[in-house]
Write a structure and sequence with these properties.
The protein is mostly helical. The protein has 11 helices and 2 strands, in the order H-H-H-H-H-H-H-H-E-E-H-H-H. The chain has helices spanning 2-13, 17-49, 51-61, 64-92, 100-131, 139-171, 181-212, 237-246, 254-281, 285-312, 317-327, and strands spanning 248-249, 252-253. It has a two-stranded antiparallel sheet. Strand 1 (248-249) and strand 2 form a beta hairpin. Helix 2 packs across helix 4 and helix 9 (254-281) packs antiparallel against helix 10. The model has no long low-confidence stretch (mean pLDDT 93). The structure holds protoporphyrin IX containing FE (2 copies).
Protein backbone atom coordinates (compact mmCIF):
# COMPACT_ATOMS: atom_id res chain seq x y z
CA UNK A 1 0.00 0.00 0.00
CA UNK A 2 2.83 2.38 0.95
CA UNK A 3 4.52 1.52 -2.37
CA UNK A 4 1.31 2.33 -4.26
CA UNK A 5 0.85 5.71 -2.50
CA UNK A 6 4.55 6.46 -3.10
CA UNK A 7 4.16 5.61 -6.82
CA UNK A 8 1.13 7.87 -7.22
CA UNK A 9 2.80 10.86 -5.50
CA UNK A 10 6.10 10.36 -7.32
CA UNK A 11 4.31 9.97 -10.68
CA UNK A 12 2.68 13.35 -10.13
CA UNK A 13 5.97 14.95 -9.01
CA UNK A 14 8.41 13.31 -11.44
CA UNK A 15 9.01 15.29 -14.61
CA UNK A 16 9.58 12.39 -17.01
CA UNK A 17 7.51 14.20 -19.63
CA UNK A 18 5.63 12.39 -22.36
CA UNK A 19 7.25 8.95 -21.89
CA UNK A 20 6.18 8.82 -18.24
CA UNK A 21 2.56 9.75 -19.02
CA UNK A 22 2.49 7.31 -21.93
CA UNK A 23 3.47 4.56 -19.45
CA UNK A 24 0.87 5.61 -16.82
CA UNK A 25 -1.88 5.77 -19.45
CA UNK A 26 -0.82 2.41 -20.93
CA UNK A 27 -1.08 0.82 -17.49
CA UNK A 28 -4.44 2.41 -16.61
CA UNK A 29 -5.90 1.57 -20.05
CA UNK A 30 -4.69 -2.06 -19.84
CA UNK A 31 -6.14 -2.52 -16.34
CA UNK A 32 -9.44 -0.86 -17.32
CA UNK A 33 -9.81 -3.15 -20.33
CA UNK A 34 -9.01 -6.19 -18.18
CA UNK A 35 -11.65 -5.24 -15.61
CA UNK A 36 -14.24 -5.01 -18.39
CA UNK A 37 -13.07 -8.30 -19.92
CA UNK A 38 -13.48 -10.18 -16.62
CA UNK A 39 -17.13 -9.06 -16.32
CA UNK A 40 -17.65 -9.61 -20.06
CA UNK A 41 -16.46 -13.24 -20.09
CA UNK A 42 -18.62 -14.05 -17.05
CA UNK A 43 -21.76 -12.52 -18.53
CA UNK A 44 -21.20 -13.84 -22.07
CA UNK A 45 -21.11 -17.33 -20.54
CA UNK A 46 -24.65 -16.65 -19.26
CA UNK A 47 -25.88 -16.63 -22.89
CA UNK A 48 -25.12 -20.37 -22.85
CA UNK A 49 -25.89 -21.24 -19.23
CA UNK A 50 -28.33 -18.63 -17.81
CA UNK A 51 -30.16 -16.90 -20.71
CA UNK A 52 -32.34 -14.87 -18.35
CA UNK A 53 -29.24 -13.40 -16.66
CA UNK A 54 -27.68 -12.61 -20.06
CA UNK A 55 -30.79 -10.71 -21.13
CA UNK A 56 -30.56 -8.69 -17.90
CA UNK A 57 -26.80 -8.04 -18.39
CA UNK A 58 -27.35 -6.64 -21.90
CA UNK A 59 -30.21 -4.51 -20.57
CA UNK A 60 -27.72 -2.99 -18.14
CA UNK A 61 -25.12 -2.50 -20.92
CA UNK A 62 -27.76 -0.48 -22.77
CA UNK A 63 -27.98 2.13 -19.98
CA UNK A 64 -26.46 5.64 -19.96
CA UNK A 65 -23.85 4.69 -17.33
CA UNK A 66 -22.54 1.81 -19.46
CA UNK A 67 -22.75 3.94 -22.59
CA UNK A 68 -20.23 6.34 -20.99
CA UNK A 69 -18.15 3.30 -19.93
CA UNK A 70 -18.33 1.94 -23.49
CA UNK A 71 -16.79 5.14 -24.91
CA UNK A 72 -14.07 5.00 -22.24
CA UNK A 73 -13.44 1.29 -23.00
CA UNK A 74 -13.02 1.91 -26.73
CA UNK A 75 -10.62 4.81 -25.95
CA UNK A 76 -8.59 2.55 -23.62
CA UNK A 77 -8.38 -0.32 -26.13
CA UNK A 78 -7.35 1.90 -29.05
CA UNK A 79 -4.68 3.86 -27.12
CA UNK A 80 -3.31 0.73 -25.38
CA UNK A 81 -3.13 -1.11 -28.71
CA UNK A 82 -1.19 1.61 -30.56
CA UNK A 83 1.10 2.32 -27.64
CA UNK A 84 1.65 -1.42 -27.11
CA UNK A 85 2.57 -1.74 -30.75
CA UNK A 86 5.10 1.09 -30.31
CA UNK A 87 6.64 -0.71 -27.29
CA UNK A 88 6.78 -4.05 -29.13
CA UNK A 89 8.39 -2.61 -32.28
CA UNK A 90 10.97 -0.49 -30.43
CA UNK A 91 11.92 -3.36 -28.08
CA UNK A 92 12.96 -5.41 -31.10
CA UNK A 93 14.53 -2.50 -33.00
CA UNK A 94 16.95 -0.71 -30.63
CA UNK A 95 18.34 1.14 -33.66
CA UNK A 96 15.07 3.10 -33.77
CA UNK A 97 15.26 4.31 -30.13
CA UNK A 98 16.46 7.68 -31.40
CA UNK A 99 12.95 8.14 -32.86
CA UNK A 100 11.07 7.61 -29.55
CA UNK A 101 9.45 11.06 -29.65
CA UNK A 102 8.31 10.63 -33.24
CA UNK A 103 6.93 7.16 -32.45
CA UNK A 104 4.92 8.64 -29.57
CA UNK A 105 3.53 11.25 -31.95
CA UNK A 106 2.40 8.47 -34.32
CA UNK A 107 0.63 6.77 -31.39
CA UNK A 108 -1.29 9.96 -30.59
CA UNK A 109 -2.15 10.58 -34.27
CA UNK A 110 -3.24 6.94 -34.76
CA UNK A 111 -5.38 6.97 -31.61
CA UNK A 112 -7.12 10.25 -32.49
CA UNK A 113 -7.56 9.26 -36.15
CA UNK A 114 -9.30 6.01 -35.18
CA UNK A 115 -11.31 7.43 -32.29
CA UNK A 116 -12.92 10.42 -34.05
CA UNK A 117 -14.83 8.44 -36.72
CA UNK A 118 -15.44 5.55 -34.30
CA UNK A 119 -17.00 7.85 -31.68
CA UNK A 120 -19.06 9.61 -34.37
CA UNK A 121 -20.49 6.27 -35.55
CA UNK A 122 -21.07 5.04 -32.00
CA UNK A 123 -22.86 8.29 -31.16
CA UNK A 124 -25.22 7.72 -34.07
CA UNK A 125 -26.27 4.35 -32.60
CA UNK A 126 -26.71 5.93 -29.15
CA UNK A 127 -28.88 8.79 -30.47
CA UNK A 128 -31.07 6.38 -32.49
CA UNK A 129 -31.57 4.20 -29.42
CA UNK A 130 -32.48 6.96 -26.96
CA UNK A 131 -34.77 8.67 -29.46
CA UNK A 132 -37.31 5.91 -28.87
CA UNK A 133 -39.17 5.52 -25.61
CA UNK A 134 -37.42 2.63 -23.82
CA UNK A 135 -37.43 0.84 -20.52
CA UNK A 136 -33.85 1.57 -19.37
CA UNK A 137 -32.10 -0.22 -16.49
CA UNK A 138 -31.90 2.02 -13.40
CA UNK A 139 -28.81 2.78 -11.32
CA UNK A 140 -30.15 0.64 -8.46
CA UNK A 141 -30.31 -2.46 -10.73
CA UNK A 142 -26.77 -1.83 -12.00
CA UNK A 143 -25.43 -1.18 -8.49
CA UNK A 144 -27.00 -4.49 -7.38
CA UNK A 145 -25.27 -6.50 -10.12
CA UNK A 146 -21.93 -4.72 -9.72
CA UNK A 147 -21.90 -5.19 -5.95
CA UNK A 148 -22.28 -8.95 -6.50
CA UNK A 149 -19.24 -8.93 -8.78
CA UNK A 150 -17.31 -6.80 -6.25
CA UNK A 151 -18.24 -9.24 -3.48
CA UNK A 152 -16.92 -12.10 -5.63
CA UNK A 153 -13.55 -10.31 -6.08
CA UNK A 154 -13.31 -9.58 -2.34
CA UNK A 155 -14.05 -13.23 -1.44
CA UNK A 156 -11.40 -14.53 -3.88
CA UNK A 157 -8.75 -12.15 -2.50
CA UNK A 158 -9.73 -12.89 1.11
CA UNK A 159 -9.47 -16.67 0.54
CA UNK A 160 -6.09 -16.17 -1.20
CA UNK A 161 -4.83 -14.08 1.77
CA UNK A 162 -5.86 -16.77 4.26
CA UNK A 163 -4.23 -19.54 2.18
CA UNK A 164 -1.07 -17.46 1.75
CA UNK A 165 -0.96 -16.84 5.52
CA UNK A 166 -1.30 -20.57 6.22
CA UNK A 167 1.35 -21.37 3.59
CA UNK A 168 3.71 -18.86 5.25
CA UNK A 169 3.14 -20.52 8.64
CA UNK A 170 3.68 -24.05 7.39
CA UNK A 171 6.74 -23.41 5.20
CA UNK A 172 8.10 -20.51 7.31
CA UNK A 173 8.85 -19.13 3.86
CA UNK A 174 9.31 -15.39 3.63
CA UNK A 175 9.21 -14.91 -0.13
CA UNK A 176 6.66 -13.66 -2.60
CA UNK A 177 6.14 -15.43 -5.93
CA UNK A 178 9.14 -15.37 -8.23
CA UNK A 179 8.98 -17.22 -11.55
CA UNK A 180 12.05 -18.91 -13.04
CA UNK A 181 14.03 -16.47 -15.23
CA UNK A 182 13.37 -18.43 -18.43
CA UNK A 183 9.61 -18.44 -17.92
CA UNK A 184 9.70 -14.72 -17.12
CA UNK A 185 11.62 -14.06 -20.37
CA UNK A 186 9.13 -16.14 -22.40
CA UNK A 187 6.24 -14.20 -20.87
CA UNK A 188 7.96 -10.94 -21.81
CA UNK A 189 8.09 -12.14 -25.43
CA UNK A 190 4.50 -13.45 -25.20
CA UNK A 191 3.25 -10.00 -24.10
CA UNK A 192 4.60 -8.52 -27.34
CA UNK A 193 3.54 -11.32 -29.67
CA UNK A 194 0.06 -11.68 -28.11
CA UNK A 195 -0.41 -7.88 -28.24
CA UNK A 196 0.27 -7.87 -31.99
CA UNK A 197 -2.14 -10.83 -32.50
CA UNK A 198 -4.88 -9.39 -30.26
CA UNK A 199 -4.88 -6.06 -32.13
CA UNK A 200 -6.72 -7.21 -35.30
CA UNK A 201 -8.96 -9.55 -33.28
CA UNK A 202 -10.08 -6.93 -30.78
CA UNK A 203 -10.40 -4.17 -33.39
CA UNK A 204 -12.53 -6.53 -35.54
CA UNK A 205 -14.68 -7.46 -32.52
CA UNK A 206 -15.19 -3.82 -31.57
CA UNK A 207 -15.95 -2.83 -35.17
CA UNK A 208 -18.73 -5.47 -35.23
CA UNK A 209 -20.11 -4.65 -31.75
CA UNK A 210 -19.81 -0.85 -31.81
CA UNK A 211 -19.41 0.59 -35.25
CA UNK A 212 -21.11 -1.53 -37.93
CA UNK A 213 -23.73 -2.69 -35.46
CA UNK A 214 -23.88 -1.28 -31.94
CA UNK A 215 -24.49 -2.70 -28.48
CA UNK A 216 -28.08 -1.53 -29.06
CA UNK A 217 -28.56 -3.52 -32.29
CA UNK A 218 -27.84 -6.73 -30.39
CA UNK A 219 -31.47 -6.61 -29.27
CA UNK A 220 -33.06 -5.30 -32.46
CA UNK A 221 -35.78 -7.64 -33.79
CA UNK A 222 -35.67 -8.16 -37.52
CA UNK A 223 -32.12 -6.76 -37.64
CA UNK A 224 -29.38 -8.83 -39.29
CA UNK A 225 -26.88 -10.58 -37.04
CA UNK A 226 -23.46 -9.20 -37.93
CA UNK A 227 -21.08 -11.70 -39.54
CA UNK A 228 -23.92 -14.09 -40.49
CA UNK A 229 -26.69 -14.16 -43.12
CA UNK A 230 -29.31 -14.53 -40.31
CA UNK A 231 -31.84 -12.14 -38.86
CA UNK A 232 -32.47 -11.78 -35.13
CA UNK A 233 -36.09 -12.95 -35.13
CA UNK A 234 -36.82 -12.73 -31.40
CA UNK A 235 -34.81 -9.52 -31.01
CA UNK A 236 -32.99 -10.95 -27.98
CA UNK A 237 -29.28 -10.74 -27.20
CA UNK A 238 -29.30 -14.50 -26.57
CA UNK A 239 -30.43 -15.20 -30.14
CA UNK A 240 -27.78 -12.77 -31.43
CA UNK A 241 -25.00 -14.78 -29.71
CA UNK A 242 -26.57 -18.15 -30.60
CA UNK A 243 -26.84 -17.29 -34.32
CA UNK A 244 -23.23 -16.06 -34.43
CA UNK A 245 -21.82 -19.08 -32.64
CA UNK A 246 -23.88 -21.51 -34.78
CA UNK A 247 -22.92 -19.92 -38.10
CA UNK A 248 -20.77 -22.34 -40.12
CA UNK A 249 -18.41 -21.54 -42.97
CA UNK A 250 -17.15 -24.72 -44.67
CA UNK A 251 -18.24 -26.65 -41.57
CA UNK A 252 -16.30 -24.37 -39.20
CA UNK A 253 -18.04 -22.26 -36.53
CA UNK A 254 -15.90 -19.26 -37.39
CA UNK A 255 -17.11 -16.91 -34.61
CA UNK A 256 -16.55 -19.55 -31.95
CA UNK A 257 -12.98 -20.03 -33.20
CA UNK A 258 -12.47 -16.23 -33.39
CA UNK A 259 -13.84 -15.70 -29.85
CA UNK A 260 -11.74 -18.63 -28.59
CA UNK A 261 -8.49 -17.05 -29.79
CA UNK A 262 -9.51 -13.65 -28.42
CA UNK A 263 -10.47 -15.24 -25.10
CA UNK A 264 -7.19 -17.10 -24.58
CA UNK A 265 -4.85 -14.37 -25.85
CA UNK A 266 -6.53 -11.42 -24.11
CA UNK A 267 -6.93 -13.22 -20.77
CA UNK A 268 -3.34 -14.51 -20.56
CA UNK A 269 -1.99 -11.13 -21.77
CA UNK A 270 -4.21 -9.09 -19.44
CA UNK A 271 -3.67 -11.23 -16.31
CA UNK A 272 0.08 -11.39 -16.89
CA UNK A 273 0.01 -7.58 -17.23
CA UNK A 274 -1.87 -7.41 -13.92
CA UNK A 275 0.86 -9.61 -12.39
CA UNK A 276 3.49 -7.05 -13.46
CA UNK A 277 1.49 -4.31 -11.78
CA UNK A 278 0.94 -6.34 -8.59
CA UNK A 279 4.64 -7.25 -8.36
CA UNK A 280 5.53 -3.56 -8.69
CA UNK A 281 3.43 -2.54 -5.69
CA UNK A 282 2.80 -5.56 -3.42
CA UNK A 283 6.18 -6.20 -1.81
CA UNK A 284 5.04 -7.98 1.40
CA UNK A 285 5.43 -11.73 0.80
CA UNK A 286 2.02 -12.63 2.29
CA UNK A 287 0.16 -10.15 0.08
CA UNK A 288 2.35 -10.75 -2.97
CA UNK A 289 1.73 -14.52 -2.82
CA UNK A 290 -2.01 -14.07 -2.27
CA UNK A 291 -2.44 -11.70 -5.21
CA UNK A 292 -0.31 -13.85 -7.54
CA UNK A 293 -2.40 -16.90 -6.63
CA UNK A 294 -5.64 -14.96 -7.10
CA UNK A 295 -4.41 -13.86 -10.56
CA UNK A 296 -3.58 -17.43 -11.59
CA UNK A 297 -6.91 -18.71 -10.30
CA UNK A 298 -8.85 -15.87 -12.01
CA UNK A 299 -7.13 -16.44 -15.35
CA UNK A 300 -7.63 -20.22 -15.41
CA UNK A 301 -11.23 -20.01 -14.14
CA UNK A 302 -12.21 -17.47 -16.80
CA UNK A 303 -10.53 -19.37 -19.65
CA UNK A 304 -12.38 -22.54 -18.57
CA UNK A 305 -15.71 -20.68 -18.22
CA UNK A 306 -15.37 -18.87 -21.57
CA UNK A 307 -14.31 -22.06 -23.37
CA UNK A 308 -17.17 -24.03 -21.76
CA UNK A 309 -19.66 -21.45 -23.08
CA UNK A 310 -18.13 -21.59 -26.57
CA UNK A 311 -18.31 -25.40 -26.59
CA UNK A 312 -21.84 -25.58 -25.13
CA UNK A 313 -23.27 -22.93 -27.49
CA UNK A 314 -26.76 -21.49 -27.12
CA UNK A 315 -29.77 -23.80 -27.18
CA UNK A 316 -32.66 -22.48 -29.30
CA UNK A 317 -35.09 -22.92 -26.37
CA UNK A 318 -33.04 -20.21 -24.64
CA UNK A 319 -34.32 -17.71 -27.25
CA UNK A 320 -37.84 -18.09 -25.81
CA UNK A 321 -36.69 -17.69 -22.20
CA UNK A 322 -34.83 -14.52 -23.17
CA UNK A 323 -37.85 -13.21 -25.11
CA UNK A 324 -39.96 -13.42 -21.93
CA UNK A 325 -37.34 -11.50 -19.93
CA UNK A 326 -36.61 -8.92 -22.64
CA UNK A 327 -40.19 -8.14 -23.61
CA UNK A 328 -42.03 -9.28 -20.47
CA UNK A 329 -44.38 -11.74 -22.22
C1 LIG B 1 -18.90 -3.07 -24.93
C2 LIG B 1 -18.10 -3.65 -25.81
C3 LIG B 1 -18.30 -5.07 -26.28
C4 LIG B 1 -19.46 -5.68 -26.69
C5 LIG B 1 -20.84 -5.08 -26.84
C6 LIG B 1 -19.12 -7.05 -26.95
C7 LIG B 1 -20.03 -8.02 -27.36
C8 LIG B 1 -19.79 -9.36 -27.38
C9 LIG B 1 -20.76 -10.38 -27.72
C10 LIG B 1 -22.20 -10.12 -28.15
C11 LIG B 1 -20.15 -11.58 -27.57
C12 LIG B 1 -20.83 -12.93 -27.80
C13 LIG B 1 -20.17 -13.72 -28.87
C14 LIG B 1 -20.22 -13.13 -30.22
O1 LIG B 1 -21.27 -12.60 -30.62
O2 LIG B 1 -19.16 -13.21 -30.89
C15 LIG B 1 -18.80 -11.34 -27.14
C16 LIG B 1 -17.86 -12.31 -26.85
C17 LIG B 1 -16.57 -12.07 -26.48
N1 LIG B 1 -15.95 -10.83 -26.38
FE1 LIG B 1 -16.86 -9.04 -26.57
N2 LIG B 1 -17.77 -7.24 -26.73
C18 LIG B 1 -17.23 -6.04 -26.33
C19 LIG B 1 -15.91 -5.77 -26.03
C20 LIG B 1 -14.93 -6.74 -25.93
C21 LIG B 1 -13.53 -6.48 -25.66
C22 LIG B 1 -12.91 -5.09 -25.47
C23 LIG B 1 -12.92 -7.68 -25.63
C24 LIG B 1 -11.45 -8.01 -25.41
C25 LIG B 1 -10.66 -7.33 -24.68
C26 LIG B 1 -13.92 -8.70 -25.86
C27 LIG B 1 -13.68 -10.05 -25.85
C28 LIG B 1 -14.64 -11.02 -26.03
C29 LIG B 1 -14.40 -12.45 -25.86
C30 LIG B 1 -13.07 -13.09 -25.46
C31 LIG B 1 -15.61 -13.10 -26.13
C32 LIG B 1 -15.87 -14.62 -26.05
C33 LIG B 1 -16.33 -14.92 -24.62
C34 LIG B 1 -16.62 -16.37 -24.34
O3 LIG B 1 -15.94 -17.26 -24.85
O4 LIG B 1 -17.54 -16.66 -23.53
N3 LIG B 1 -15.13 -8.09 -26.05
N4 LIG B 1 -18.60 -9.98 -27.05
C1 LIG C 1 -4.91 -4.60 -28.63
C2 LIG C 1 -3.66 -5.00 -28.72
C3 LIG C 1 -2.69 -4.94 -27.54
C4 LIG C 1 -1.36 -4.66 -27.64
C5 LIG C 1 -0.60 -4.35 -28.93
C6 LIG C 1 -0.81 -4.73 -26.29
C7 LIG C 1 0.52 -4.56 -25.96
C8 LIG C 1 1.06 -4.53 -24.71
C9 LIG C 1 2.46 -4.41 -24.39
C10 LIG C 1 3.59 -4.33 -25.39
C11 LIG C 1 2.56 -4.38 -23.03
C12 LIG C 1 3.85 -4.20 -22.22
C13 LIG C 1 4.32 -5.51 -21.69
C14 LIG C 1 5.54 -5.37 -20.80
O1 LIG C 1 5.74 -4.34 -20.15
O2 LIG C 1 6.31 -6.34 -20.79
C15 LIG C 1 1.24 -4.52 -22.48
C16 LIG C 1 0.93 -4.52 -21.14
C17 LIG C 1 -0.31 -4.73 -20.63
N1 LIG C 1 -1.46 -5.03 -21.34
FE1 LIG C 1 -1.64 -5.02 -23.35
N2 LIG C 1 -1.81 -5.03 -25.39
C18 LIG C 1 -2.98 -5.18 -26.13
C19 LIG C 1 -4.21 -5.54 -25.61
C20 LIG C 1 -4.50 -5.68 -24.26
C21 LIG C 1 -5.78 -6.11 -23.73
C22 LIG C 1 -7.01 -6.53 -24.56
C23 LIG C 1 -5.66 -6.08 -22.35
C24 LIG C 1 -6.68 -6.44 -21.31
C25 LIG C 1 -7.29 -7.60 -21.32
C26 LIG C 1 -4.32 -5.65 -22.02
C27 LIG C 1 -3.81 -5.48 -20.74
C28 LIG C 1 -2.51 -5.16 -20.43
C29 LIG C 1 -2.00 -4.94 -19.08
C30 LIG C 1 -2.82 -5.00 -17.78
C31 LIG C 1 -0.63 -4.66 -19.22
C32 LIG C 1 0.37 -4.36 -18.08
C33 LIG C 1 0.62 -2.88 -18.03
C34 LIG C 1 1.86 -2.50 -17.23
O3 LIG C 1 2.69 -3.35 -16.87
O4 LIG C 1 2.02 -1.30 -17.02
N3 LIG C 1 -3.63 -5.42 -23.20
N4 LIG C 1 0.32 -4.60 -23.53
Amino acid sequence: MTTLVYTVTETLRYRGKVGQWAWVLHRVAGLGTLLFLVLHVIDTSWAAFYPELYAQAIREYQSPLFTIGEFALVGCVVYHAFNGLRIAVLDYKPAWWAYQARAMLYVVIGTVAVLIPTYALMLRHVVNFYREDRDIAGLDEIAGTMSEFALGFVVIIAVALVLSGLYGLVTRGDRGVRLPGRLEASLWGFMRLSGVLILPLVFGHLAMMHVIQGVFDITGDGIGVIGTPHVNETGTAVEFVGRRWDYLVAGVAIWRVYDGFLLALALVHGFNGLRYVVNDYAARPLVNRALNWAILFGMVALIVLGAAALLAGVDETAYEIATDITFGH
